[in-house]
Amino acid sequence: MNETIPDNAVAARMATSTPQAVALGFETVSMGVGRASMRIPWREDLVEDPVSRALASGVVTTLMDHCSGMAVAAVEEDRFPTATLDLRIDFMRSAAPGAGVVVEAHCYKSTETLAFVRATAWDSDPEDPIATVQAAFVLNGPQSVRPVS
Amino acid sequence: MTDRLKAFLDARPYAQFLGLKPGLVGDDPVLILPFSPHLIGNTALPALHGGVIGAVMELSALAQLTLAHPRHGPHQTIDVTIEYLRPGRPLTTHVRAVLKKVGRRIANIQVEAWQESPSQPIAAMRGHFLLGPES
User: What is the ipTM of this complex?
Assistant: First the structure.
């Protein structure tokens, strides 16, 4: 990945000041043009089942949605996603017991109004994914009032 | 019915993290997600995080499958398609799952989430789920 410091204000804010991202403990791994990578460390209160100790699939869904939105925000400074239109997730397997999850998202195409993203989640090996995502986002352009927080 | 739904939620730490409660709409079991500030994904609107809405719809599908097929389990999510229809406002959200087809191994489930009125859903989900082994 073409790593850069997350200097895009919108993207940086998405990583650090979104209440749900903070509550789940999301961390930004890297950002590049149209690309974002984030991780979530394992936590006991985020598992689906205390016996299997795997992070809940819903946690993976939220991380993938969030990271996909970051990848869109990382395309251009003045474009940012307003809403996820749809998100398709395929789950290959559960996360390993006690393992954190890493997501890498790529916004491979954007138009005036839409952005298209693919993302992959894994725990220890990117070649052995937990889940993959295909998502579409609605964009706001520079004419829109940017949200403040 | 709500007792069994409560047992499903109590067994899942992540459901507790979200603050999910069991409920009934008519005779249908539903998941109720009371608003809480930690669920916010967009502070400007403000709106619930889309991932949270997706996660609750997926849990609702798994819960409905567990209620209908209690001898099987645990069930696993194969794939889901989430369609976002309206922003999730900082209000209580209701989620209801309908089993469209349950085969020997695979279930097809459709889910809707709404806040003030079921006729104004905020999101919908379709997905496939793998039935757990019979115990």
Answer: 0.96
